[in-house]
Design goal:
InterPro entries: Thioredoxin-like_sf, Thioredoxin_CS, Thioredoxin_domain, TPR-like_helical_dom_sf
Keywords: Disulfide bond, Electron transport, Redox-active center, Transport
Radius of gyration: 27 Å
Helix content: 55-70%
GO molecular function, one term: protein-disulfide reductase activity
Structural class: alpha/beta
Oligomer: single chain
CATH class of the largest domain: Alpha Beta
Pfam families: Thioredoxin, TPR_19, TPR_20
Protein name: Co-chaperone YbbN
Strand order of the largest sheet: 1-3-2-4-5
CATH superfamily of the largest domain: Glutaredoxin
Strand content: 5-15%
Order of helices and strands: HEHEHEHEEHHHHHHHHHHH
CATH architecture of the largest domain: 3-Layer(aba) Sandwich
Number of strands: 5
Shape: elongated
CATH topology of the largest domain: Glutaredoxin
Number of domains: 3
Largest sheet: 5 strands, mixed
Distance between the termini: 55 Å
Mean pLDDT: 85
Low-confidence stretches: 1-21
């Protein structure tokens, strides 16, 4: 999301004559975060969604460039060819082009569809300049927007985009716990647990005990334990044959956890505590605590299991 557009990307007339960082530029899906979201932290950024075959786009484009350049830095213009870069247009639900969106402080604040005459474009830009002049701050909103975008990308399986956004945030704020944790989760998602643990171990002291990092550390330790737990059917057979085989039940709990069966894993550990809470130096209770760390304190399963565990311990 933050890479430089290809050298052969089509250039508008104004963008071709402008240097890097000037007021009008061509961009892409991958550069959208840097060129639009990040840039709009301090100045409104107008995004022109266009395509080479679109007649009205050819009418509107030069007008937008002219008015933006006349504003002398009060706004910027980013042009995105939707044929080459369909992702952002799709996310913004652009149905037809030309489509124009204005971003300020990391979020869309205005826009219009179709080709407008120069007078209306001027009014549009003046409205944005006035909005920027009356607004203050916005850095916190921008950060939250970026973190939300990264989380959505990771949840959607787009590890590359998520890691790029988290990386950009960490360049600006090396001790941002949410971004640091997010980047580690990207490594885990990519099955690079070695680098994930290295990064976790090297976490800045100021954030090392953040709840997100504590959760990740517990999750990694549980995953390592679960990898050696054994096949579920065999362990279930052992437990069925001997209900007091606590080691088999403990291994079953870890195997269930590895399979994503969190509730069943919790139930197995609770049953060990119920039958023999002191077994193996309270291993089942301690493992439940590690589960709670991995799930997070507000997870419904954590809350429910804490109640059940207390009921068993104090009955």
């Amino acid at each position: 999301m933050f890479s430089i557009p290809p050298a052969n990307a089509p250039k508008s007339a104004a963008a071709a004559s402008a240097g890097a960082g000037d007021l009008v530029k061509d961009s892409s899906d991958r550069a959208f975060m840097a060129d639009v979201i990040e840039a709009s932290r301090s100045v409104p950024v107008i995004v022109d969604f266009w395509a080479p075959w679109c007649g009205p786009c050819k009418q509107l484009g030069p007008i937008l460039e002219k008015v933006v350049l006349a504003a002398k830095g009060a706004v910027r213009l980013v042009k995105i060819d939707t044929d080459q870069n369909p992702m952002i247009a799709s996310q913004l639900r652009v149905q037809s082009i030309p489509a124009v969106y204005a971003f300020f402080q990391g979020r869309p604040v205005d826009g219009f569809m179709g080709a407008l005459p120069e007078s209306q474009v001027k009014t549009f830009v003046e409205r944005l300049v006035k909005l920027a002049g009356s607004a203050g701050g916005g850095e916190g909103d921008m950060l939250e927007e970026a973190l939300a975008h990264a989380r959505e990308a990771l949840e959607a399986g787009d590890v590359q985009t998520a890691s790029e956004i988290y990386g950009e945030i960490l360049q600006a704020e090396p001790e941002n716990a949410a971004a640091y944790a997010g980047l580690i989760r990207c490594l885990i998602k990519a099955d690079d647990t070695t680098r994930a643990r290295q990064m976790l171990d090297k976490a800045p002291e100021a954030i090392a005990k953040d709840k997100e990092l504590v959760s990740i550390r517990a999750d990694l330790e549980l995953a390592e334990q679960a990898a050696n737990a054994g096949p579920i059917p065999e362990l279930m057979e052992k437990v069925a044959h001997d209900a007091d085989d606590h080691q088999a039940r403990y291994d079953l709990a870890m195997a269930l956890y590895a399979a994503g069966k969190r509730e069943a894993a919790v139930d197995a550990l609770l049953e060990i505590v119920r039958r023999d809470r002191a077994w193996n130096e309270e291993a089942a209770r301690k493992q439940l605590v590690k589960f709670f760390e991995a799930f997070g304190p507000t997870d419904p399963l954590t809350v429910q299991t804490r109640r059940r565990l207390s009921s068993i311990l104090f009955s």
